[in-house]
Specification:
By secondary structure, this protein is α/β, with parallel strands linked by helices. It has one domain: 3-Layer(aba) Sandwich (Rossmann fold). Helices cover 45% and strands 16% of the residues. It contains 13 helices and 13 strands. Helix 1 crosses helix 10, helix 7 packs parallel to helix 8 and helix 9 packs across helix 11. The longest helix is centred in the middle third of the chain and has 21 residues. The protein is globular, with a radius of gyration of 19 Å. 45% of the residues are buried. The structure holds nicotinamide-adenine-dinucleotide. Nicotinamide-adenine-dinucleotide binds next to helix 1, helix 7 and strand 5.
Amino acid sequence: MATYLVTGGAGFIGSHLGESLMAGGHRVIALDSFSDSYDYRVKIRNVQQDTCRENVAALSDKESALAELSRSLDSAQYRLETVDIRDAHALERIFQSERIDAVVHLAALPGVRASIEQPLLFEDVNVRGTLLLLETMKKYGVRKWVCASSSSVYGNNTKVPFSESDSVDSPISLYAATKKSNELMGYTYHHLYGIDSIMLRFFTVYGERQRPDLAIHKFARLIDQGKEIPFYGDGSTKRDYTYIGDIVSGIRGALSYVENNESVYEVVNLGNSRMVSLNEMVACLENELGKKAVLNRLPAQPGDMTMTFADISKAKRLIGYEPRTRFEEGIRNFARWYGGNLS
Ligand code: NAD
């Protein structure tokens, strides 16, 4: 049994990863600040098990609810730490109290548009927070690291599919710039201190528990409520949507690779390698929800990429990544989950 620190462990991807690692017999320390990037109660539901549902639901203030959540989830396989990655003392306390085999770093402020509105906050969490984590790993001799980067580092790359060898020197949002800087810091700590690292460039992840601010989830809610969808551009922008189950398999593959190899620094795309246009995405949601979308057509937004499309040959070769979920099937799973979670 290995012990993994998963930062952002109560988020969309982190909560799924935690479950998968536990199902594999491992111990998970989920670290999460339950930041206000979206409603903290959604993140509570992400990690909550049936056993503690009622106790936590009865508490109305955030602090007591999180304390009760940590207490009731604590087990030989799971520990929840409601900690901010920018809190050096809290990080030290965790690293002192556990023998951590590897870190999966998912904690971040995500969102292209939000980063344009709050650039200094994004820099503080995504860059300084990541650096503090690396410093703590260095101090406590943790040498295996998998870190979330993003397809957004490709900016308005016109060469498709996007390959890890393409230049990523022109990020078009501050969010993308913070992710590129994580990749650079990962290399520096690998070079100076031998931290084996894989930086995973996720391509638009969707599925059960998807963040409420992301297009598929937001559109589903608006279609369901019969409200207008803010529809930027003419619908021809394309995304390579990647199902959460495939992303979790990819992270697990990357973890195995860093754990079983020495002197590793790699940047790896995790996508589905199929482009779906915004128009097609809306049509697919309408089909699954059985309702028509009402579109409020607006001009394209600054910072938005025209397309994303992953070359996943390196992921296949290096970490055995093999995405299996077709977009239509993933949307069906999402819609089923969405229908069962209407509050
Ligand atoms: P998420 O917001 O659901 O999860 C991130 C978690 O990090 C949240 O639970 C949040 O509370 C936590 N967090 C934020 N600031 C923190 C801080 N200062 N200290 C501790 N915890 C903090 O997002 P997600 O979609 O699960 O994304 C996970 C990672 O993957 C992020 O790094 C994101 O940038 C990256 N990513 C996601 C996608 C996607 O499509 N979902 C695409 C590319 C990259």
